[in-house]
Write a structure and sequence with these properties.
single chain, alpha+beta, Immunoglobulin-like, about 15% helix, globular
C-alpha cells in the first residue's frame, strides 16, 4: 500500500510539474500563470467556465479585498493541496494546486472575489497528511478547515469562525 501511495504521489508531482511548465511557457503576460483568460458574459456568470482555470498554482499574494485562503504551513504536512472552487457543490471548477513552500495566502479567482456564497473543496497529496487552512473574507475568518483526505464547505460572507483570526 505504501509503495502504491508513493507511486501515485510521484506521478502527481510529475504531472503537475509538466502542467506548470506548459502554463508558464504558454503565458504571454496577459494574466497570471495558471489563470484562464476566458471572459464570462453576464449570461454565463455563475456558470462553470468552459475552459477551467489551470490546476497549477499561481504566485500572486492575497490582496484581501474579498474571499481569500490562508494556509497554516506550520500545521500542514501535505505536499500538495488541490482546490476546486465555485458557488455551490454543483457549480464548481478546478482552481489551483498549492505546493508546500509557496506563499500561504492567496486570493480566489476574480470572478469569485465578491460572491455572496463560496464553495471550496481541498484534497491533499499524499492522503493521510494534514492540510490546515482558513477560508477568509476580507478581514475575518469564515471557516477553519483541517483534513487528511478531502474537505469541502459552502460559506457565506457573513459567517465567522473564531479559529481563524
Amino acid at each position: 500500500m505504501k509503495k502504491r501511495m508513493a507511486l501515485i504521489s510521484l506521478l502527481l508531482v510529475i504531472l503537475f510539474s509538466a502542467c506548470s511548465r506548459k502554463t508558464e511557457t504558454a503565458n504571454t503576460g496577459a494574466s497570471s500563470p495558471g489563470v484562464a483568460t476566458t471572459a464570462s458574459s453576464p449570461a454565463t456568470a455563475g456558470q462553470p467556465q468552459t475552459q477551467p482555470s489551470s490546476p497549477t498554482s499561481t504566485s500572486s499574494l492575497a490582496t484581501k479585498t474579498g474571499w481569500w485562503v490562508r494556509i497554516n504551513p506550520g500545521a500542514t504536512t501535505a505536499q500538495l493541496i488541490t482546490f476546486q472552487i465555485g458557488t455551490s457543490k454543483v457549480q464548481r471548477e478546478e482552481w489551483r494546486v498549492w505546493n508546500a513552500g509557496e506563499p500561504a495566502e492567496f486570493d480566489v479567482p476574480e470572478r469569485y472575489l465578491q460572491a455572496p456564497r463560496l464553495y471550496l473543496r481541498g484534497n491533499v497529496t499524499p492522503i493521510g497528511k494534514i492540510a490546515t487552512l482558513c477560508l477568509m473574507y476580507k478581514d475575518r475568518g469564515v471557516d477553519h478547515m483541517s483534513f487528511d483526505d478531502d474537505d469541502s464547505e459552502t460559506k457565506s460572507q457573513t459567517e465567522i469562525d473564531i479559529k481563524c483570526r
